[in-house]
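ok new one. same drill as before - structure tokens go in, u give me an amino acid for every spot. 269 of them this time. try not to just spam alanines like last time pls lmao
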């Protein structure tokens, strides 16, 4: 395993606090199902109605992802959506056959279920970013569990899939939650600070820090970010990058482990 792979292990950290990026994700349904006996506190949280048959997401076409230990890959990640600019972003990604990872807010999933279905249908990866972007370290374990489960339920009811990753808001995750995770924790090595600058040129400039194996933190709820994507995609494509999901970039991420980057040419499979 290369030094860049599985760069961040939070096994011993009481609290994971990576940055002030304002991003994070919750846990998947597996987390609760595998690690906790469902009890009254988990019941009654699912309020969304199942999608009708003609609204259900179709499985993404099977594809063979590139071998990121042989070619240059990057995982573009977008937090806090879906939102008003996500559909435009999906079209831009399609132009490069780019796959991305979306860390969704449960409340926004409820508002935009069709966009979640579109993300899934186009082969993008879905991660849990909590219901309302609250700091998981500032709530009880039981409340955090409910929050994450509620978000997982919303994603499943909207698009028929479970989030495969978590990204806790603010990168903050209590150890008591982390040890129960049944999914990997997706962090990042390139923070565009797009949420802070809200500036297209600044976001493009920040993306110049991308190297093979990077996981890039962005937010599709900001127009300035989506406006930066044509240039970012064009520049990276010209450099020979393949746009992959976080799971594809890492290879076989392990539950409960935090990953800040993935494979790059020269790293071992
Ligand atoms: Zn966020």
């Amino acid at each position: 395993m290369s030094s860049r792979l599985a760069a961040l292990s939070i096994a011993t950290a009481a609290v994971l606090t990576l940055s002030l990026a304002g991003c994070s994700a919750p846990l998947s349904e597996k987390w609760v199902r595998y690690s906790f006996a469902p009890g009254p506190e988990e019941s009654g949280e699912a309020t969304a109605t199942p999608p009708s048959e003609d609204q259900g997401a179709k499985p993404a076409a099977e594809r063979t992802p590139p071998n990121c230990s042989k070619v240059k890959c990057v995982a573009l990640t977008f937090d806090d959506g879906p939102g008003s600019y996500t559909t435009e972003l999906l079209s831009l990604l399609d132009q490069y056959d780019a796959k991305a990872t979306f860390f969704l807010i449960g409340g926004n999933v409820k508002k935009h279920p069709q966009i979640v279905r579109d993300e899934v249908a186009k082969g993008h990866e879905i991660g849990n970013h909590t219901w309302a972007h609250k700091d998981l370290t500032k709530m009880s374990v039981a409340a955090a569990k409910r929050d994450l489960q509620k978000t997982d339920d919303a994603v499943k009811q909207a698009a028929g899939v479970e989030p495969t990753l978590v990204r806790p808001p603010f990168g903050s995750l209590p150890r008591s939650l982390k040890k129960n995770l049944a999914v990997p924790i997706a962090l990042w090595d390139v923070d565009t600070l797009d949420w802070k600058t809200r500036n297209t040129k600044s976001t493009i400039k920040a993306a110049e820090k991308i190297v093979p194996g990077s996981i890039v933190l962005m937010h599709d709820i900001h127009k300035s970010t989506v406006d930066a994507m044509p240039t970012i995609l064009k520049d990276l494509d010209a450099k020979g990058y393949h746009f992959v999901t976080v799971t594809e970039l890492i290879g076989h991420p392990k539950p409960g482990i935090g990953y800040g980057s993935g494979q790059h040419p020269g790293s071992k499979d």
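The chain is about 30% helix and 15% strand. and btw The radius of gyration is 17 Å.
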